[in-house]
Amino acid sequence: MRTLDSLVDKALSRRTFLAGAGAAAAAAVTGCSSQGVTTTTPLYTDADILNYALNLEYLEAEFYLRAATGAGLASADTAAPTGYTGSYTLGPVTPGLAAQVANLTTAQQQILNEIAYEEQQHVRFLRAALGKAANPRPAIDLSFFGPLATAAGITTSTAPAFNPFASFDAFLVGAFIFEDVGVTAYAGAAPMISSAGVTAGYLTAAGGILAVEAYHAAYIRTTLTARAIAAGNASAYPYLGYANQIESLRASLTVGNAAQPSTAGAVETLLTLPSGPTSPSAIVPADQTTAIGFARTINQVHHIVYGSGTIGTKSGGFFPNGTNSLFATTTA
Amino acid sequence: MATPETQLVDDLLQQGRRRLLTLGGAALAGLVLGASPAQANAATPYSDSDILNFALNLEFLEANFYYLAAFGCTIDKPNAAAIAAGAPTKGIPITGSVGTAGTVSGGSQVPFSTTTAGAYATETAIEEGKHVLAIQSALGTSAIAQPAINLGTAWPALATKAGVAGGATFSPYASDSNFLLGAYVFEDVGVTAYLGAASLITSASNLQIAAGLLSVEAYHAGLVRTALNALDPTASAGLVTATNQISTLRASLSKAAASSTANPYDTNPDDFGLATTTVALAGTANLSATRITDADPTNTIAFSRTTTQVLNIVTGGGAINGTTVVSPALGTFFPAGLNGLFK
Predict the structure, then answer these.
(1) Do B13 and A118 touch (CB under 8 A)?
(2) Among A317, B161, B172, B258, which residue has the least CB neighbours within 10 Å?
(3) Residue B337 covered by a domain
(4) B17 in contact with A at a CB cutoff of 8 Å?
(5) In terms of residue numbers, what domain contains A68?
(6) pLDDT in tens, B141-198
(7) Of A257, A239, A242, A245, which is closest to residue A297 (Cα–Cα)?
(8) Number of domains in chain B
(9) Across the A/B interface, how many CB contacts are shorter than 8 Å?
C-alpha cells in the first residue's frame, strides 16, 4: 500500500499543478515588470480551497452563534489542530454590537438556532476534513455591519450604526449579506477541486454544503418577501429594500462583474414584492435566461467580504487582517 | 505527456474514480454523510449527456407540475397567464431524439388564496421551465423526449403510501397548503439527485451547470420548507406531520434502493421533515431548532442520492423488487418509465 499511496500522492500534486496552471492567477503579481509577459500561475491544492471555505464558515458561525445565543464559537472549535505546522495565530473577534437577538418568537429563535448550528457544524466538518492543514480563524470584525450598511445607503453616516442584532428583521438583513454569497462561493469553488479531490469526496461535500447555504438563503429571502407581503407595501416594511440595496453594493464591489442586479451579466437577482398570486416572487437568484444559479470566483467573494472593489486589497471589512488563505489578496 | 510513471498514476486514478462510482460518489472515509450506497448502473458506460438527460426527465416532471398549478396548462401549451408570467409564447419543446413525447395526465390550476403561495408557484414554474430549456440547449440533439407523466392519480397513491391524513383524496391542486406539500415531494429530491450526479460529471462546464441547478433546487426546497413552516409553526396544523411522513417514505424508498446492493450503507435516514430537533450550540446544549434544511444532522451537509435511489422514489418503489434492481422503473409519476440511459 505504501507504493500505491505514494503514487497517488504524486498524482495529487501533479493534478494540483495542472489545475493551477490552467486557472486564472489567484494572487497579486508583485515585483513583475509591467512590460513582461510574466504571469503567476500559483499552485493551489484542495486544502487551499477548503481553507478558503473555512474562512467564510468561521465568519458565518461567529455571526449566527452570537445572534442565537450571544456567544461565539467554542474554544475547541478554534484550537490548533494536532500536528499543525508553523505558528498558529488565532484571530480575535471584534463583536461590535453582537448580542443575542431579543424579542424573538419561539419559532424565530428555533430558526436562529438551526442556522447557527449548521454553520458551527460546517466549521467542525471542514476542520476535520483538513486535519492538521486547517488554518486558524482569522481576525473577524462584526462591527463592519455598520459601515457596510452606510455604504449600501441603508443608513447615513451620522445615524446610529445599523445593528443586525437589534431585531428579527434586522437580523434577516444581516444574514442576507452572507447567504447568497456563500452559495455562489461554493458554486465557484466546486469545479476547482482536483480529480483526486473528487475521488476523496470533496466535491460531494462542497456540493452538499452549497445546498445547505442555499436552503438558508431561501429561508432569508422567503421570509423577507413574506413579511413585506404581510406589511402590504415597501415603505411599511423597509427591510426588503435594504436587502436590495445590499445586492447593489455587492454588485458594485465585484470587480470584473460590476453589472447592476437584475441586468445582463449580474450575479444578483433583486427581491420583488408580489402584488398578488399571479405575480412572481424572486426568491431564487439565478440567470434570467436559464434559471441556473450563479457562481462567484474566490476573488469576487473576497472583494465583497473586504467591502472593497480595489484591486490588491489584502484585508478589510469583516476580515481586518485578511482571510487566512492563499487567495487573501484581491485581483482584477 | 504520458511517461510510464504518469500513465500508471493516471490508471490508478482512473481505477480510483471507477471504484468511487461504484460507491455512488461519496467516499470521504466516513466524514461525508455516513456512507453512500451503490450505483446500480456502475458497470454501464455513461456520458455527461446521460446524466443531463436523467436530470431532464426530472425537470419535465417538476416544470409540468408547477405550470399546471400556477397556470392550469402544461409546458408545451402555455396559456395567456403563463406567457404573462414569462413562459415562452411557443411553449417548451417536449420532443427529443430518444423516445416519443409522452403526455401529462391530471393536474389543474390551484385556486390560490394567498399572495405568497401563488407568487412562489408562479416564480417556480417559470424557473423549472427554463431549466428544461437550458438542459435541452446543453444537450442539443442528444436531448430525450418528455416521458409520460402522471400528475393526477399519482398524488393520492403517494399520499396514501406515505400515510398522510386524507391521503386517498389528496390533491396538491386543492389549496395553497396542499400545493406546498406537493412541491415538498419534489424539491428535496431534486437536491439529492443533482448532488449525486455532480461527482459523475466529467466536464467542468457541465459541472458548473449542475452546481447552478443544484443551488436553484435547494433554493426552491428552502422556499417550500420555509413556507410550510410558517403555516404550521407549532406543528399543530398537520402540515409538519405530513412533511415528516413524506420524508420518511422517501428515506425508506431510498434505503430500499441502497440496500439492494452489497455495498455498505448508512442505515440512518437520508431525509427529514419539518419536525423540530434539538441542537447543541457553542455554550449551550439542548436548544430547540427547526429543520428548514434537509441535511445530515451531524455534518449538516445535504444528502446525495444515486440514480437508482432517485428512481425508486419518483416511481414509488418501481426500481426495486425485493433486493433486485428493476429497469425500467415504472410507477407513480412515471407510468411508462423515464427516457434515456438511467431509467
Answers:
(1) no
(2) B161
(3) no
(4) yes
(5) 46-306
(6) 999 999 999 999 999 999 999 999 999 999 999 999 999 999 999 999 999 999 999 8
(7) A257
(8) 1
(9) 328
